Amino acid sequence: MMDIRSDMLSRLRNRKPGYTLDRPFYNDPDYFQVDLENIWYKDWLFVGHDCEVPNPGNYMTVDVGAYSVIIVRGRDGKINALHNSCRHRGSRVCAEHRGSAANLVCPYHQWTYDLDGSLMFARQMGDNFDPSQFGLKQVACESAGGYIFISLADEPMNFEPFRKTMEPYFLPHRLREAKVAYESTIIEKGNWKLVWENNRECYHCAGNHPELCKTYPENPSISGVSGAADDPETAEHWAKCEAIGLPSKFQIDEDGQFRAARMPLLRDAISYTISGRKAVHMRLSDQVNQDRIGTLLLFHYPTTWNHVLSDHAITFRVMPISATETAVTTKWLVHKDAVEGIDYRLEELTHVWTETNDQDRQIVEENARGILSPAYEPGPYSEVHEGGVAQFVEWYTRFMESRLSGEGKPSLRSVA
Q1: N or C terminus of the chain: which is more exposed, having fewer CB within 10 Å?
Q2: Can you give the pLDDT at residue 211?
Q3: Is residue 124 over pLDDT 70?
Q4: Domain 44-151, what fold?
């Protein structure tokens, strides 16, 4: 693996700025393993929403590479993350994607754990057995603005800069009290970086996303976000939203890993529907009393991008499966009291992004197939339309360079 790490580092250091990556970054299994070890097993990862585990005993599971993790609401109301590996012989304790349980019971030999992971019962283990030494291993877990993040690192990075940036934007939308109206997961046959590169530009939108383009601007200052401050329409939109107490202006962290901004939709559209009208008749939050607030965007590499509107939210989670497969999970959140068939029609709520997701899947898969060709070589990003893609690749390059070389700032410093 050291030879692979050295090869990756050399390629990153010699990469031409503003160009795509060399082929192995998109399809080599050894490169993928280094990605897992240096990003996915060390950074904060979005896994789901507080509202998905509203009561003690509610749980969901998520797989990150070789790890399986349980997210469960404790008896004290705290959300816990636990390794889904029994301390007896390693069996998965929770086999279902989600559920509810008074205690966590391993189906193999019925070792029984409390909702905080402590071992409560292990049958006939002998007089010298100490249950306190065999609780489920803990995973670092944080909640911010209704979003649950975990870190598999032994010493997690400081989560507070993200919380400080993100929560003022998201708390008014009360996503902690929302509910998931619909969830879908698609498997895209492409590397996780290709999924992100496709997301970070709308250069391809006009030719590929007829449904989305009814309401979402192709304007690169909006899709790329970083140049939005120079756009008069965006500046006017920010002023209007901030006047009603909604933080809106573009914010990015110093390393470029996360960013947030509230962006206008086309022609004062309210929601992602073919007509631009509301998809849900009940507003997502009682604190937001206007409809035309555009879309609140949040990007957090490597796991999530988001759109929060006045009537609903769409959240996306990226999870790597292999060097050439990525799972993209989309969730549509609505007000907790909204009733399907009365306050919204599920097909209308989900249509635009269901179609867009499938179109993006096809794009990513064709991109991945083309990169397999021996004729492939890195190509230039559009300076006009693909600034967001270049920014993502620069983030990846900087992070991997610092982690592979050990020469960067101590980005894995734990919270004091």
Answers
A1: C
A2: 93
A3: yes
A4: Rieske Iron-sulfur Protein (2.102.10)
- pLDDT (average), residues 186-208: 94
* Cβ-based neighbours of 116, under 8 Å, separated by 6 or more: 74, 75, 76, 78, 80, 135
**Side-by-side strand order, sheet with 295-300:** 179-188, 325-334, 313-322, 304-308, 295-300, 258-263, 251-252
> At residue 230, does pLDDT exceed 80?
no
* Helix 192-199 × helix 346-371 angle, to 10°: 120
Query: Which of 215, 329, 318 is closest to 264 using CA atoms?
Result: 215
AA letter at 77: G
- At residue 260, the 3 state secondary structure works out as strand
pLDDT of 221? 66
DSSP state string for 310-376: SS-EEEEEEEEEETTEEEEEEEEEE-TT--BTTTB-HHHHHHHHHHHHHHHHHHHHHHHHHHTSTT-
CATH superfamily of the domain spanning 161-371 = Naphthalene 1,2-dioxygenase Alpha Subunit; Chain A, domain 1 (3.90.380.10)
- Give the Å distances, CA to CA, from 159 to 103, 142, 163: 29, 8, 6
Domain range list for the chain: 44-151, 161-371
Residues in the chain: 416
The β-bridge partners of 322 are 325
Q: Which of 366, 369, 390, 388 is nearest to 379 (CA)?
A: 390
